[in-house]
Amino acid sequence: MHETEAITAAIATNVRGQRTHRGLTLDALAQRAGVSKGMLVQIEQGRTNPSVSTLTRIAAALGTTVAKLVEVYDVPPVRVIAKSEVMTFTHAGSVAKLLVGADSPMILELWDWRLDPGAHHDGDAHPPGTREMLTVLDGELTLTVHGRTHTITEGDALLFTADRPHRYANTGSQPLRFTMVVVEPKEVAES
After folding, report:
1. Using CA atoms, how far apart are residues 47 and 39, in angstroms rounded to an integer?
2. Minimal CA–CA distance to 155: which of 132, 139, 133?
3. How far is CA 121 from CA 108, 126, 167, in A?
4. Could you give the CA distance from residue 73 to residue 6 in angstroms, rounded to a whole number?
5. Does 66 have pLDDT greater than 60?
6. What is the rounded distance in angstroms from the CA atom of residue 89 to the CA atom of residue 151?
7. What is the 3-state secondary structure (H, E, C) of the chain?
8. Measured distance CA(189)–CA(125) in Å, rounded
């Protein structure tokens, strides 16, 4: 692909992605940016190479930068994370492995947790709108969120709002292992 075509394609993908991530319609973005809806359609379909002035207005309306809109991602459609690249955190009877993460269009993390009997981990409140999903692979998890305790046994799964302090604990006599996904929305800049 020619460099100009690659940039036009990147702009199309990035503008559409930023707009939909913020829940804006084409009409709403057009009004905020002072750009016609027709121009936005052409940009998002990769049919035009917008001027710097147009990109500046669109970036400002989206609360991002022109650089972010023209960024040509060099990320392959499939990303394999080797075991040697997995980040491991250990603390007082717990081992947490961040298996893979992404930050676009939202922050996503996949974790593999192990807690020894009697061990716990206190999680701080995440930004508003953050959700966590997990499933217990071995043992029994005692999860406390907002003063309420929940017991999750092997094979069970749960989803919870993680924008408040929470605790993962192994109150049993067997090792605990669970897999968790954290989904955190990116902050939306106000304009």
Report:
1. 9
2. 139
3. 20, 15, 6
4. 10
5. yes
6. 24
7. CCHHHHHHHHHHHHHHHHHHHCCCCHHHHHHHHCCCHHHHHHHHCCCCCCCHHHHHHHHHHHCCCHHHHHCCCCCCCCCCCCHHHCEEEEECCEEEEEEEEECCCCEEEEEEEEECCCCEEEECCCCCCCEEEEEEEECEEEEEECCEEEEEECCCEEEEECCCCEEEECCCCCCEEEEEEEEECCCCCCC
8. 20
As a whole number, the mean pLDDT across the chain is 87
How confident is the model at residue 129, as a pLDDT?
A: 87
Whole-angstrom distance, CA of residue 171 vs CA of residue 143 = 10
- The pLDDT, as a whole number, for residue 178 is 97
Backbone angles phi, psi at 116, to 5 degrees: -70, 160
What pLDDT does 50 receive? 87
Q: What is the pTM of this model?
A: 0.60
Q: How confident is the model at residue 115 (pLDDT cuts 50, 70, 90)?
A: very high
